[in-house]
């Protein structure tokens, strides 16, 4: 694979992984199985390892989740809430132990194993024995402060009890909805002729985002805590001791957590709970395995994303067979064709599955999925439907291989497929499906954030001819009467929508640029372009060479931006946005203007005292630099804090410059 091909594939994988992170963690509308997500992420990690100069700080491989909601105050976790690496079979679990042995030496090791509940991660903060804060995982660094909702969960003690309660305590756990409550809630929804929820995890996640704590109290959520992050004045030496101490303080831990002496007992525990999972009162998708000794945990340390002393043993997804009735192609905002199999409805892992994604035409061809086929489907993580394979023995004699459409199924434009790409596309930018998807994208929270402009309303606006593109949104006030006449729209809701549209005019340039839906321009690229050029007009006129000179902007992104602005219809669209009063310039700030670290790479090691690691990273990136997790010859400098790790030694070995925290502050202009 050439560097250019790798860059294109990396950009594509990042977009896909970020999209699925958002769907899973924020929208609660996952589309692919965990195993498929893991495959995409693993491919991305492998490519970034092959081409380290293409690895960027904003890559999904460098972080642990998605953005928190904007409905609650944000809280920065003192210790990041990292995710766990996954393993899917006994061999991989044994490989995990070998990695542990390589680092700490072969010795008898105690592990703590506990069922991995499929819920919502939560941090609980206590001061002087009283609950003061409950925070969601968010992106692992920042989460939502949902304290009123946490207080409404009956299994969360508001006051701790027992002996030796720490003055300050932070514990973490999993919020979940018992199956009995989930079934009762769905029965109530069906009686009201509302669509039932897909699974308990979605309900738990959505409930914790409610702005009304009374809703939380009625839902019947529960929590099991599983770790101690901070316990001021309490000397805790192991994970097993931590569980015992938490139970003694009145916190609810999983009653079936087990101290295992060696991997053999861990494997027996995993097999035991795989047999029990159907009889449980809550959903589990595997077992969490942790090295119990805190001293060994400290010695093993962390990667940039996972602790090296813990792993999640994931159970195989549940499977079922059904029949493919049709294969329908959906058209996305960039024209991409996505084939979807419509199936005979079949019960699977607690819900009814009636369709499954086929990803792209090459995937359909590889699996040879045909209309009329009996297929094996699975829900990775017991949630998401996916076609695994065709049961060829049951194939009817008259089936034919599926052929991708030569024309767009919506606008009938001849489809195109570029060299090196797996997706067929509709090249017609005016295709109704693309227009609708682009409008949805423009209104999203991470773009122009137009609250109230949901999918149904976007469809109505287009269907009634009230809008044709983004710019028309800013003229809806002139058609208020027609807006009010729409289904489920009234005076108040229409006025609220118009206020939201008006407010969106002042969004940052990076949001607008991302909202335009230019192919290959994600949040990171939009931010880099906005920060460099400051004005949309400057981006519109910039040559490819200048865009490529921006650190992390490659030729694929640069060409795509140039081609988008070269199209006359897009220039007219931008002109109309400006005429409507949409802000197209970034406010000037000293920090943003001075790119003193442009093209430089930094590594942080040890504990910083004048600022947090996140603050240091943000300050370096604001000046055009990049913070990486490992030291190489390309590293500009290693910032050495208190009690540094092996990275400081590696810097000395390679002759890389070492900076104290004070020296970094001076370079940042704050020394």
List the helices and strands and how they pair.
Layout: H1 3-25, H2 34-50, E1 74-76, E2 86-87, H3 90-104, E3 110-117, E4 120-127, E5 130-136, E6 142-144, H4 147-151, E7 168-176, H5 179-191, H6 200-208, H7 213-219, E8 222-231, H8 239-248, E9 258-261, H9 263-276, E10 284-291, H10 294-300, E11 310-314, E12 318-331, E13 337-348, E14 351-357, H11 361-367, E15 374-380, E16 384-390, H12 432-443, H13 455-463, H14 470-473, H15 480-484, H16 491-504, H17 509-515, H18 523-533, H19 536-541, H20 544-548, H21 555-566, H22 568-579, H23 590-593, E17 601-605, H24 613-622, E18 626-628, E19 637-640, H25 646-654, E20 657-660, H26 661-668
Parallel strand pairs: 2-11, 17-18, 17-19, 19-20
Antiparallel strand pairs: 1-6, 3-9, 3-10, 4-5, 4-7, 7-8, 10-11, 12-13, 12-15, 13-14, 15-16
What are the main properties of this structure?
38% helix; 20 strands; 5-stranded antiparallel β-sheet; 671 residues; 6 domains; Helix Hairpins; OB fold (Dihydrolipoamide Acetyltransferase, E2P); alpha+beta; D-amino Acid Aminotransferase, Chain A, domain 1
Structural notes for this entry:
The protein has 671 residues and is an alpha+beta fold. It folds into six domains: 1-62, Helix Hairpins; 74-314, DNA ligase/mRNA capping enzyme (D-amino Acid Aminotransferase, Chain A, domain 1); 319-428, Nucleic acid-binding proteins (OB fold (Dihydrolipoamide Acetyltransferase, E2P)); 432-504, Orthogonal Bundle (DNA polymerase, domain 1); 509-587, Orthogonal Bundle (DNA polymerase, domain 1); 594-668, Rossmann fold, CATH 3.40.50. It has 26 helices and 20 strands. The strands form five sheets. Strands 2-11-10-3-9 form a five-stranded mixed β-sheet. The chain has a five-stranded antiparallel β-sheet with strand order 14-13-12-15-16. A four-stranded antiparallel β-sheet has the order 5-4-7-8. α12 (432-443) packs across α13 (455-463). The model is unreliable at 63-69 and 589-593 (pLDDT under 50).
């Amino acid at each position: 694979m050439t560097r250019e091909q790798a860059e294109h594939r990396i950009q594509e994988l990042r977009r896909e992984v970020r999209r699925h992170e958002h769907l899973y963690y924020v929208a609660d509308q996952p589309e692919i199985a965990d195993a498929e997500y893991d495959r995409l992420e693993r491919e991305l990690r492998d490519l970034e390892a092959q081409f380290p100069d293409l690895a960027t700080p904003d890559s999904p491989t460098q972080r642990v989740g998605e953005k928190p909601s904007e409905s609650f105050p944000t809280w920065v976790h003192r210790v990041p809430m990292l995710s766990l690496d996954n393993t899917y079979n006994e061999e991989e679990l044994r490989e995990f132990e070998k990695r542990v042995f390589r680092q700490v030496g072969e010795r008898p090791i105690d592990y703590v194993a506990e069922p991995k509940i499929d819920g919502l991660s939560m941090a609980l903060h206590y001061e002087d024995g009283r609950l003061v804060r409950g925070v969601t995982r968010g992106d692992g660094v920042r989460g939502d402060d949902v304290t009123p909702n946490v207080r409404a969960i009956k299994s969360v003690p508001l006051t701790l009890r027992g002996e030796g309660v720490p003055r300050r305590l932070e514990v973490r756990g999993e919020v979940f909805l018992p199956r009995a409550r989930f079934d009762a809630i769905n029965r109530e929804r069906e009686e009201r002729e509302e669509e039932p929820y897909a699974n308990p995890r979605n309900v738990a996640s959505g409930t914790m985002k409610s702005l009304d704590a009374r809703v939380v109290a009625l839902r019947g959520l529960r929590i099991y805590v599983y770790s101690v992050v901070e316990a001021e004045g309490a000397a805790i030496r192991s994970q097993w001791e931590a569980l015992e101490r938490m139970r003694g303080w009145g916190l609810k831990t999983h009653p079936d957590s087990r101290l295992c002496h060696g991997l053999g007992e861990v494997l027996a525990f995993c097999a035991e709970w795989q047999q029990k999972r159907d009889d449980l009162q809550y959903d589990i998708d595997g077992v969490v395995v942790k090295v119990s000794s805190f001293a060994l945990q400290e010695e093993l340390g962390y990667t940039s994303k996972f602790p090296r002393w813990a792993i999640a043993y994931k159970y195989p997804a549940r499977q079922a067979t059904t029949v493919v009735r049709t294969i329908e192609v959906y058209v996305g905002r960039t024209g991409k064709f996505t084939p979807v199999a419509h199936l005979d409805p079949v019960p699977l892992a607690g819900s009814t599955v009636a369709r499954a994604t086929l990803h792209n035409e090459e995937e359909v061809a590889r699996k040879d999925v045909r209309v009329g086929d009996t297929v094996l489907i699975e829900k990775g993580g017991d949630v998401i439907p996916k076609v695994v394979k065709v049961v060829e023995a049951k194939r009817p004699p008259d089936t034919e291989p599926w052929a991708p459409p030569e024309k767009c199924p919506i606008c009938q434009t001849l489809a195109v497929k570029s060299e090196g790409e797996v997706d067929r596309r509709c090249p017609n930018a005016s295709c109704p499906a693309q227009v609708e998807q682009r409008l949805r994208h423009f209104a999203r929270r991470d773009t122009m954030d137009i609250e109230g402009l949901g999918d149904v309303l976007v469809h109505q606006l287009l269907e009634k001819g009230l809008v044709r593109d983004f710019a028309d949104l800013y003229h809806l006030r002139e058609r208020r009467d027609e807006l009010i006449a729409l289904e489920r729209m009234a005076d108040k809701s229409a006025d609220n929508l118009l206020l939201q549209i008006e407010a969106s005019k002042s969004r940052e340039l990076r949001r607008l640029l991302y909202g335009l839906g230019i192919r290959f321009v994600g949040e990171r690229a939009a931010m880099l372009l906005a920060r460099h050029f400051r004005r949309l007009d400057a981006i519109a006129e910039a040559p490819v060479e200048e865009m490529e000179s921006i650190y992390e902007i490659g030729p694929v992104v640069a060409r795509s931006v140039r081609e988008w602005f070269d199209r006359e219809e897009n220039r007219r669209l931008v002109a109309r946005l400006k005429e409507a009063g949409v802000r197209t310039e970034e406010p000037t700030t000293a920090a943003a203007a001075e790119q003193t670290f442009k093209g430089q790479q930094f590594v942080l090691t040890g504990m910083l005292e004048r600022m947090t690691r996140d603050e240091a990273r943000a300050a370096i990136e604001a000046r055009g630099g990049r913070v990486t997790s490992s030291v190489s010859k390309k590293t500009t400098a290693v910032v050495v804090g208190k009690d540094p790790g092996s990275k400081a030694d590696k810097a000395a070995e390679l002759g890389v410059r070492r900076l104290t925290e004070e020296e970094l502050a001076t370079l940042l202009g704050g020394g």
